[in-house]
Amino acid sequence: MPHAALFDVDGTLADTNHLHVPCWWEAFRQAGHRVAMRDIHQAIGLGSGDLITHLLGADLDEEEVERIGAAHKTLYATYFDRLAAFEGAGDLLRALAGRGRRIVLATSASGGELAALRAAVDADDVIAGTASSDDVSEGKPAPEPVENALDIAGCSAAEAVFVGDSVWDMRAATRAGVPAVAVLSGGISRSDLEEAGAVAVYQDVADLLARLDSSPFARTE
C-alpha cells in the first residue's frame, strides 16, 4: 500500500490567508454586516457557506449566504494572478514524493481559485490528485475531505500524514484518524493548533522540510 502526504493549501502551501480576510470583510460589509477581521481570520479554512454561517449564524437566509459567498469569490479573484506559494512549498512536495509519498491536496478551494493556487505552488508534476470542496458534502472540520484524499491516495489513515494551518484542518484530520501536522504560517497560534489535535507544529513548510527526517513523516515510513 502506498503512503500519502495530504496537504491543505491556503495558509499552508500558499500565502493567502491574509488576502482572504479583507475579501471576506468587504463581502460582509457589502451585505450590511460588520464582522471583525480577527473573527474572520479564525474562521479561514472553513468552506464558504460554513464560514458565513459560523460568523453570522445558522438561521441566515440561504440566498444571502450565496450572495456573500459570490461577493467574496469576485473580490478574491482579483488576486489570482498574484498568489504566492510559501518558500519551500514545491520543494517539500517533491522531497516527499521522492520518498515514495503520494501527494494529495485537500482544500475548500475549487475551480479557478484552485487552478491559481496550484499554479502558485508549481508542483503539479508530483501532485497525484486533489480533494476539493466540489467532491464532498461536508467540509472541514468534518473528516470527509481528508477521507476523500485518502481514497485518492489509495492508502489507509495509518499510512498518511496531513499538513494544515487551521484548527479546522487539525480537527478534520484527527477525526479521520490521520496524524495532523500544523504550520504556523496561517497565523493561528501553536496552542490552538495543538488543542485541536496537532501532533507536531512547525513555523512553515520550509521549517518542516528542514526537519523532515525527525518529523511524523519519518515516523510513518
Automatic annotation (TrEMBL):
EC numbers for this chain = 3.-.-.-
Question: Which first-to-last residue range defines the signal peptide?
Answer: none
Query: What UniProt keywords are attached to this protein's entry?
Result: Hydrolase
Q: Please name one Pfam family that this protein belongs to.
A: HAD_2
* Origin species: Streptomyces salyersiae
GO MF term list: hydrolase activity
Q: Which residue windows are coiled coil?
A: none
Name-wise, this protein is HAD family hydrolase
In terms of superkingdom, the source organism counts as: Bacteria
Q: Which InterPro entries match?
A: HAD-like_hydrolase_sf, HAD-like_sf, HAD-SF_hydro_IA, HAD_2, HAD_sf, PGP-like_dom2
